[in-house]
């Protein structure tokens, strides 16, 4: 597909870039994207949850009432899960939620997400620019010129400190380097803003595999 390149004023520069069908034109694989997102979210979990069971709760182990003749159920300790302040039955324990996915599947998932965005006309090309200093107000005016309001993911060819610092306070805007793209961020955006140089980086990265 062919897209026009915009400048930071939101104007058409007159240049057009052809996006590779091998990256932006494949048939999206929904299951691959599901697995990749599932792994990404699982890897974010610390897995440090823990509740105390009856052998870990502080308290007396003295039998609280006699075995028979009370008219109620037997009770041997205040640590029992049936009492307030007692231990918890089958409570959560620390565990590792991460799991493995093949590299080829993750690669397919990213291509599927890029192709899905391109198919839905959610991809825009922006000519390369730089900021002299971190200025959120200046960066917001650029987004206003481009008529961008919803969730947006901007792809840069390399780290740009001024752009990152200028945009980090914007709640619906995220900056990513082309080499660090992941399926979750691609599917969690309403607009994919790609700098002109990033197209070449993406083609280089994904053509090598």
Automatic annotation (TrEMBL):
<comment type="function">
    <text>Forms part of the polypeptide exit tunnel.</text>
</comment>
<comment type="similarity">
    <text>Belongs to the universal ribosomal protein uL4 family.</text>
</comment>
<comment type="subunit">
    <text>Part of the 50S ribosomal subunit.</text>
</comment>
<comment type="function">
    <text>One of the primary rRNA binding proteins, this protein initially binds near the 5'-end of the 23S rRNA. It is important during the early stages of 50S assembly. It makes multiple contacts with different domains of the 23S rRNA in the assembled 50S subunit and ribosome.</text>
</comment>
<dbReference type="GO" id="GO:1990904">
    <property type="term" value="C:ribonucleoprotein complex"/>
</dbReference>
<keyword id="KW-0687">Ribonucleoprotein</keyword>
<dbReference type="InterPro" id="IPR023574">
    <property type="entry name" value="Ribosomal_uL4_dom_sf"/>
</dbReference>
<dbReference type="GO" id="GO:0003735">
    <property type="term" value="F:structural constituent of ribosome"/>
</dbReference>
<dbReference type="InterPro" id="IPR002136">
    <property type="entry name" value="Ribosomal_uL4"/>
</dbReference>
<dbReference type="Pfam" id="PF00573">
    <property type="entry name" value="Ribosomal_L4"/>
</dbReference>
<dbReference type="GO" id="GO:0005840">
    <property type="term" value="C:ribosome"/>
</dbReference>
<keyword id="KW-0694">RNA-binding</keyword>
<dbReference type="GO" id="GO:0006412">
    <property type="term" value="P:translation"/>
</dbReference>
<dbReference type="InterPro" id="IPR013005">
    <property type="entry name" value="Ribosomal_uL4-like"/>
</dbReference>
<keyword id="KW-0699">rRNA-binding</keyword>
<dbReference type="GO" id="GO:0019843">
    <property type="term" value="F:rRNA binding"/>
</dbReference>
<protein>
    <recommendedName>
        <fullName>Large ribosomal subunit protein uL4</fullName>
    </recommendedName>
</protein>
<keyword id="KW-0689">Ribosomal protein</keyword>
<feature type="region of interest" description="Disordered">
    <location>
        <begin position="45"/>
        <end position="75"/>
    </location>
</feature>
